[in-house]
Amino acid sequence: MKNYLLSSLLVATVSLAATSAVSQEANSCLVAGHRGNALYYPENTIAAYAACKGIADMFEIDLRKTSDGEFVSLHDNTLDRTCRTPVGTAATGSVESSTYSTLRQLDAGSWKGAQFAGEKIPSFGEIVDCARANNLKILIERKGTTVSAQDCYDLIQLHTCADIVIMQSFDASFCYAFAKLMPGVPTGVLTDGATAAANASKYVSEGCDFASCSDLSAAQVVTLHNAGLQVYNWTIDGASAIKTAKEKGIDAIITNDPATASGKQPDDPFVPYVPGTMSNNLQGYWQLDGNANDVQNKIPGSAVGSSLWTTGKFGQALASAQGKYVNLGTASAQTPGTNAITLSIWVKFDQLPSQQAVNYAGIFDSTADGYVIYSDKPSSEVRLKVATVSGKATRPGIPAESIKLGQWHNIVGIYDGAEIGGGMAYIYLDGVKCSQLPMNTVTTDFVKGQQGGIGADPLSSANSYFVGTVDDVAFWNRALSNGDVKEIYDRGMEGKSLNDIINPPSCVADWSLM
Question: What is the topology classification, in CATH, of domain 15-64+124-262?
């Protein structure tokens, strides 16, 4: 099993700005990952199912029967879209005409990305094991006509999993038959809202427990609830659509993006800070104590504007505003040369993103956008952006409502190309991870020629200036651990700068007391 399966808690998620829009309703609505966490992982694979851990209540599978009577999960009956042969060509044929052993020779992951090569079409037994290991339920969609209600009954009995499965199908007759065989397993008809509302009493009389609907209105939800049915809604993606769906009073949402739907971020294993390591791979460090000097002497800055300095979090700080910023020039040390970076900045905001005169206010910025932290007016969040020369970019964010005006915040942005799924970007606020997003590349190919600036993009300062106070800015060409991030924040709240962490005061013995 690949390492990324063993670390499914590091699954890709979305920005907290998106999740916050739906978090108020999250506790009352179940979340099902459609074909798993399919937005970021190859659908209907163990990787996609395991990646629902911590951010969903269940994952949905598409149950099909092979020519020799085995049961697997694949949405399409044909193989060409998501399966590759051992030589890398698109597979031919269908699930129903193939033996199980033939299907197991196929690669069901590489179509989504090279990092998923080797993923297999999963057997039902493997799916049950995955669900139990990750404390998830299985929402089974019966596919095709070769899978009978009796087949499903026998399969569930064989794997002793009636306690963790839910059954649905577009075939109402199948649902009625299955509900009679296994009345203890929740069963629902897949259809649209209008059809479900018109047939609600029939569904109930035949033993169904829910209707799983597309194109659903609030009035139809009321009708179905009044009939005694729960209501599932599919397939809903995007924060706005998810919020709208939940406001209708649905009981479960089926989505390709369970992190946004649940408003949850998976927990990462805590890696404690190791004293003496904070300076490792430190490329640039600007204390901003009345000057733009780089303590590391690798990326010298030059102050632009007048009346630049004010009281900081530690000593003095940059009073950033229009025409007042630090230009970091074109030093080659700004190109990481690794597949990882970290930015740490202490910031005091004078404006929320919605109050900015410019759309993109650069806290640590550049035109190249290789790695920047900025206040984003259109999305109303503070974002980390990481970009590569091949055109890939990702932007995890902090919602504006988490920012307190006039209060010091520590913002840390991290990109780790060695992470699960081929690279992950994280943004932290005050020592706590707010969101993470995948890049799906392990490349060291960050945008080259970054000409950085603190408080603005120096090549476009009139359109990118940040209004607030900036202090103790640092850049590493490695990914800090969550313990490192917590150390920076915790020591900062004690009045200790990054320099104090790197160079702690020496203990001097007081011999006068001896």
Answer: TIM Barrel (3.20.20)
